[in-house]
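Risk register update: the risk of archive-format incompatibility is retired. Evidence:
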Amino acid sequence: MGRGQRARGYDPEHDLERPQADPGATWTKGVLIEAAKISAKTFDTIRKSARVPGPSHGGLTHPYSASDLIALIQKAESGRFSEIGAPIAEAWRPLLKEAGLVMPSAISRKKR
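Archived output:
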């Protein structure tokens, strides 16, 4: 499949269970870096790989939405970041839970 194409039967509304989530929940880059105990460079590498827009320079106070954080977690758990990304994703998951969002656990490559 090419970029931007979805498999048949894909329904983004049912990918996550969303019980009474806070629609305005945001986290800053500084909070996400501190929670995962990673460098700004590592964060930006994961962010760019996940294609999440960010500030042009610096921006520790740049807000990231719940959908941005979900994309970051999914990218951290997959592919290139599979070794270092797992602890990062585990550090970010409680942030989603505090906001009332439940994200399914990582799907192993064998089950995909």
